[in-house]
Amino acid sequence: MAPEADWKADLRDLEKHKLSILVRYDGKTLFRSDKPGMEPLVELLEANMNNLVGTTVIVRSLGIAAAKLLLWQHVMRIDALVASRPAEDLLRPSGIAVNVRRSVERITDPKTHQPCRYETLGVKFDHPEELYSALRSELLIFPARK
What we know:
Elements: H1 4-16, E1 21-25, E2 28-33, H2 39-48, E3 56-62, H3 64-72, E4 77-84, H4 85-91, E5 97-104, H5 117-124, H6 128-141
Parallel strand pairs: 3-4, 4-5
Antiparallel strand pairs: 1-2, 1-3
Helix pairs in contact: 3-4, 3-5, 3-6
């Protein structure tokens, strides 16, 4: 686990710049996005598939789908403003350092308060490759809206 000051500073940086995801390696920013939903994570994977080993991923919201994909890519650390308990439960035994400001039972759509569609997909697919493919298809059909 990172020193508390480090991961809390990363979360403040995410909020300050109004980002949804920030990826760092060895102190350098590799990727950042302010787009909502899973689109930024899919873009990250498109550009860096299998090249995220040892990175720190800082996210606004961490659900089970994102957790499965980040576990698949062998990131070193994940810092999240909000994380679902199923995402945390999946990651904790993996050796990935996980720092969370607030845990919730599940990630919900802020407008409908129903389970987030990505949480539903994350539960549906056990294999990250299948989940990734399903997310790419979903984003083509239902692009993220700001």
